[in-house]
Backbone:
């Protein structure tokens, strides 16, 4: 029985806009175990982004409990949340969010700059290791403008790995990429997942979901489907079957 | 450790925006440099006034006839004949706070030696004059009290007069010259003193016994002024009071009558001139201070824009674990680094321009250490003060909104 990384019970999130109260999440419960690759799907307005913000400790639920790695998140203050984000979660965004005019290596080092337990030497070492893991060992001194979209997303993935998080949280991580590059990135995710890294991937593309081993579908603030994938596609195989591009 | 990292982050941001940073710094640089240079000029001119006045004898006391009324009309000082030889004698006898005292009568005229002539001023004095005015002799000797008694036709001349009436470089001592067609024997040459701060040539003088000048040149029996020196600089104010009392009783003035004379110590003169130059300094520094303030506003402006421009970056930093306080410190350090670097460059520029002013404009300058400390401190405070608001704004951003900001 593997450890539960995420445990959510009867989670509600309400926003007050003027006199109206919007129920973005209407009491959802689920948990994610260590080593899982979960995709969260849903159309816009389904509460997907709200759930992502809460999972990423960027926002607090109105009621219900949220535990990450055995830590109750509710009632923690802003600084404690920042520490959790720093030590437990690796973020990947749709638009990469790399620092411009800053080398890949320094971009990857960024989360560790906010962790005073990591020394300068260790920081560098871990950043290099993470970049090697995503296959960018020869691009470490390149700035984002010198890298392709796929390479930039790899840098972002390296950045999410560098603090050894308990979970990687990806928000439409392939949304800005073409099919081929998307598959490359997905195959990288699958590889990382095989090494035991827990991944939660928010997307609205069904083919991306087919690469994960579990899919949760949200609609109007409720979970309407939560099932394990019977037939997990291999992104590497899919990639090989794509027509070869002319260069 | 964490602070060191924030320092690195802030430093990196500055390096990435070299041009913008430099332009921001410019305000601070110019502000600090001008504060230092202006204060140096102010201090320099104050020092120079002080040294000019003390080279004239810092414990000197000047007694002149005062403004008087004749039939309701105020008279010019030079036409007053209220200061007499008797006044001089009374002061000399009664005032015990004075060391030297001399009557002074003076008038303009032409110094003639053969075909050379030069317009100058003759001062009729007694031998104490050189001690009061602290004038040394280059050659020859001062006339004696006996020569004063006998109204001898002897003179001492300053270097400017020597240069103009003895252009061939011959020794003037022992030669005869004429002042307003009256022949005088030159018995000494005064040591060169140069111009004073007020632009007066102190070497364009002829000195003769006051008796001679009174009788043979001006044909008067009153005095233009009496100058004396107090025992010390500290005694000068008391000596002024003492002399005033002697003169009031000498002139038989009743309690409700104003003085018909004027007694002044050099100290008063110094403070008068110092006050003028001080006011000028304050004015200059105020202008420089305003430019420093504008420099500070420039920093705030840039930091504000920088926060806006980097909203998404701030969101990212927060997402990967940056606390509000980290973001605050990052921007604050950035602002302080800009202002301190600007301040340092300003100090260098200020010192450089001071040297330039001294060397090429020949204005006296004196860099006061306090001006460097003050302007530098103002700079650091400016950085904190004007950096705080934008930094605070950055730290208060909500990471979710910041991340989605386009």
Residues:
């Amino acid at each position: 029985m593997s450890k539960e990384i995420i445990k959510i019970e009867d989670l509600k999130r309400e926003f007050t806009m003027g006199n109206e109260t919007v129920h973005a999440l209407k009491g959802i419960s689920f948990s994610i175990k260590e080593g899982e690759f979960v995709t969260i799907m849903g159309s816009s307005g389904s509460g997907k982004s709200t759930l992502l913000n809460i999972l990423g400790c960027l926002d607090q639920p109105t009621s219900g409990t949220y535990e990450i790695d055995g830590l109750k998140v509710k009632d923690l203050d802003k600084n404690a949340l920042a520490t959790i984000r720093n030590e437990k979660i690796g973020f990947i965004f749709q638009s990469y969010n790399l620092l411009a005019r800053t080398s890949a290596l320094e971009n990857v080092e960024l989360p560790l700059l906010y962790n005073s337990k990591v020394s300068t030497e260790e920081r560098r070492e871990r950043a290099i290791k993470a970049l090697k893991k995503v296959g960018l060992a020869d691009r470490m001194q390149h700035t984002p403008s010198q890298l392709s979209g796929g390479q930039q997303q790899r840098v972002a993935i390296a950045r999410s790995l560098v603090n050894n998080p308990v979970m990687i949280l990806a928000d439409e991580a392939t949304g800005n990429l073409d099919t081929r590059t998307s598959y490359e990135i997905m195959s990288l995710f699958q590889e990382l997942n095989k090494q035991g890294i827990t991944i939660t991937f928010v997307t609205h593309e069904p083919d991306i979901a087919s690469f994960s081993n579990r899919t949760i579908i949200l609609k109007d603030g409720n979970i309407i489907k939560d099932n394990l994938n019977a037939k997990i596609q291999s992104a590497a195989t899919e990639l090989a079957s794509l027509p070869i591009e002319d260069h | 450790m964490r602070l060191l990292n924030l320092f690195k982050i802030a430093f990196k941001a500055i390096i990435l925006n070299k041009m913008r940073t430099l332009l921001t710094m410019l305000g601070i640089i110019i502000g600090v440099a001008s504060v230092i240079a202006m204060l140096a000029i102010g201090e320099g001119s104050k020092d120079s006034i002080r040294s000019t006045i003390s080279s004239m004898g810092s414990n000197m006391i000047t007694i002149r006839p005062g403004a008087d009324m004749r039939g309701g009309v105020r008279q010019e000082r030079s036409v007053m004949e209220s200061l007499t030889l008797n006044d001089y004698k009374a002061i000399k006898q009664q005032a015990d706070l004075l060391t030297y005292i001399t009557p002074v009568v003076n008038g303009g005229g032409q110094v003639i030696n053969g075909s050379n002539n030069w317009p100058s001023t003759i001062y009729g004095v007694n031998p104490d004059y050189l001690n009061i005015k602290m004038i040394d002799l280059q050659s020859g000797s001062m006339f004696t009290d006996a020569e004063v008694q006998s109204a001898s036709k002897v003179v001492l001349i300053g270097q400017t007069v020597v240069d103009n009436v003895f252009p061939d470089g011959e020794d003037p001592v022992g030669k005869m010259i004429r002042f307003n067609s009256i022949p005088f024997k030159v018995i000494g040459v005064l040591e060169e003193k140069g111009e004073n701060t007020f632009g007066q040539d102190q070497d364009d003088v002829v000195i003769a016994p006051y008796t001679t000048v009174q009788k043979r040149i001006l044909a008067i029996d009153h005095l233009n002024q009496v100058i004396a020196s107090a025992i010390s600089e500290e005694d000068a104010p008391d000596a002024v009071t003492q002399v005033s009392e002697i003169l009031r009783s000498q002139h038989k003035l009743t309690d409700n009558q104003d003085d018909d004379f004027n007694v002044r110590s050099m100290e008063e003169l110094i403070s008068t001139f110092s006050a003028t130059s001080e006011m000028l300094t304050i004015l200059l520094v105020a202008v420089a201070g305003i430019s420093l303030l504008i420099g500070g506003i420039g920093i705030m402006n840039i930091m504000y824009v920088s926060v806006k421009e980097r909203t998404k970056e701030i969101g990212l930093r927060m997402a990967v674990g940056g606390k509000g306080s980290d973001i605050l410190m990052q921007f604050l350090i950035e602002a302080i680094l800009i202002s301190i670097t600007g301040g340092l460059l300003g100090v260098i520029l200020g010192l450089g321009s001071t040297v330039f002013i001294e060397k090429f404009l020949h204005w006296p300058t004196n860099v006061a250490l306090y001006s460097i400390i003050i302007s530098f401190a103002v700079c650091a405070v400016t950085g904190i003060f004007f950096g705080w608001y934008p930094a605070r704004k950055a730290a208060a951003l909500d990471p979710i909104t910041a991340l989605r900001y386009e």
